[in-house]
Design goal:
Shape: elongated
Number of helices: 8
Helix content: 40-55%
Low-confidence stretches: 8-21, 179-184
Strand order of the largest sheet: 2-3-1-4
Amino acid sequence: MTSKAEQMRRAANGQRDGAQENGDKRRATALASPSDQLNKEIVRLLQDDGRLPYDVIAARLGVSAGTVRNRVNWMREAGMLSILAVVDPIAADYAADAMLGLKVAPGVTPQAVAARLEPFPEVVYIMWVGGRFDLLVEIVCDADRAFADFLNEQIYEQTDIAHAEIMTCIDMFKNQFLLKRHVI
């Protein structure tokens, strides 16, 4: 146990004791929680405009800009929050947009096929599903040739896929999978 004088000396020199550091870590973890109401409100505002300045968020929520900055940083460090740009697939008007229903080959796991497909920029998302298919994979391409090449090279020529059903997009009515506002 350190004396008050020792704690003050350490604080003046930028040193901290282990109990204080552990307490700070627990507090930061709690303040990065997705269940915290202030965090939910900050995330909600950032979902509407990811470039919203911290002082504007702070004014709307009745807290300081420093509080917002700290909360955002803690949520980012905890892996709860990423701020990025998302292209609206309807506005992008890709030449080819398709959902692939994939049945993996015997002895192959859905995770293995997903891991192989994940690095390709054409792949928008991969979902492991129950039912007729093992995986649903959405791909988008800027050109029909790129779409055909992807199918030939990454789907049909691969031994880890037993069956593929290609469902090409005729028209897009709604696409909000990246903007699930109800989650927070």
